[in-house]
Amino acid sequence: MERWRTIIEPFRIHSVEPIRLTTRAERERALEAAGWNLFGLHADDVLIDLLTDSGTGAMSRDQWAAIQHGDESYAGSPSFYAFRDAVQALFPFGHVIPTHQGRAAERILFSALGGPGKVIPNNTHFDTTRANVEFTGAEAVDLVIPEGRVPSLVHPFKGNMDVNALEALIRERGPANVPVVFVTVTNNSGGGQPVSLENLRAVREVCDRHGLPLFLDACRFAENAWFIRTREPGYATRPIPEIVREMAALADGMTMSAKKDGLANIGGWLALNDDALAERCRNLLILTEGFPTYGGLAGRDLEAIAQGLREVVDEDYLRYRIRSTAYLGEALDAAGVPVVRPIGGHAVYLDARALLPQIAPLEYPGQALAVALYLEGGIRGVEIGTVMFGRHPDGSESAAPMDLVRLAIPRRTYTQSHIDYVIEVVRHVATLAPKLRGLRIVAQPPQLRHFTARFEPL
Fold this sequence. Notes:
The protein is α/β, with parallel strands linked by helices. 41% of the residues lie in helices and 12% in strands.
C-alpha cells in the first residue's frame, strides 16, 4: 500500500449522521447570537466541526459491541477489571483510577499535590491543566524547547521539554516546592508536536537527581509513539505497544483523557505507582466522581475504552491517522497558508499571527481567523493563543507566545472529501486576510475565559 498516493480510511462506514448545510447569512446570525465565540454555537449550525478531537470520534463496531458487556454494578464491576487490564497492558502502573474525563484526573492529582508556593513545570500546560494547577494556588510553568515556540521552524520533536530550563527552575525554587514534573505527549498547545524518548530519559534523569516524580499527560500517547517510531533513530521496527510501554516506564504516573487516544466519547483515568498518593487520590475521587471501580463512568464506557485501547495502537490506523492530518497541513502549507511545521498528529495549527499581522495580539488574531473560517465556510476550529492563555491569575493580560487556530480532526469521522472542502475554505479565507479585523472581549469569566467569553468585532 505504501506506493499509492491516495490515503484510504482503513475502515468502511457502517452508519451515517446528516450534516445540515447552512448559508453565510445563517452563520452570521449564529455568530452574533453566540457572542462571536465558536463554543457558543449550536453544533447543528456547524458543517465541519474541528473544534476538538476530544470525545468527537466515531467508535468502532467492536466498541459498540463491547458496550453490551457493560456491567453497572456500583462496586467491583467486571467492566472495571477489563478496563484496568487494558490500561495496564500499555501503562503498567500499580494503581489505575478511572475518572469521567481527563480534567477530573488533573483536578484530583493537583488537589493532592498542589497549593500556594508550589510550582509545576510542563513542556506546555493545556487549558484545563493550567487552570487546575492554578486553582490550587500553585504556579504552572511552561518549559518547551525554544524551537517549539517558532511555528515555521521544522524540528522532529518540537514538543520536547527544555531540560536545562527544568534544572534551573528546580534549583531556583527548590525541589521541595516542585511536587511533580509533567510532560504532555503530544504537546497540544505547541502544535500537536511529539516528545522523543531521548528527551523523556533526560527529564527522568533530572527528576531522579532531585527526587521528583515524573508524570505524563498522555492523552495522545499513540500518536506520540508513532512519531517516535518514524522519527527517532532505532525505533523504526519497534511495535507501537512496546514504544508506549517504554514511555510509561520512564514515568511514575499519568493523567489521561480517554476521549482522545482512548477512542471513546467519554472517560479518563489517573494511574500511578505511589501507594500513599493513590490512597489520597481515591479518597478525593469518591467525593466527586464515584467509587474507585467506576469513577464517574458507566460500565459500558469502561468496556468501550478497553476496546479502544486495543484499536488505537494498530499500525494501519495510526498510519492513516497521521497521514490524513498531514494531508490537510501539507496542502495548506503548499498554498502559502502559514501553519505550524512539521504537521502535528491530531490537528493542523494555523499561524494566525503570521497570516494577520495587522491584528495586534491583544485584539485576538486567532479568534478573528477562527470566526472567519466559520463565517465563510461553516468550519469550527478553536483559538489557541492570547484568548486561551493571555490572562493571568491576577487578572492582567499579555500576548501569548503564539496565536494559533487549531483544526482538530476527530478520529474516524470525516472523509477525504470533507478535508478537501476544509482546504478550499482556508485558502479562500487566506485571500481575505488583509481585510480581517480583530475583536474585543465584552464579557468574560475569571478563568478559562475562552469557553464562555463574549466578543464583538472591532
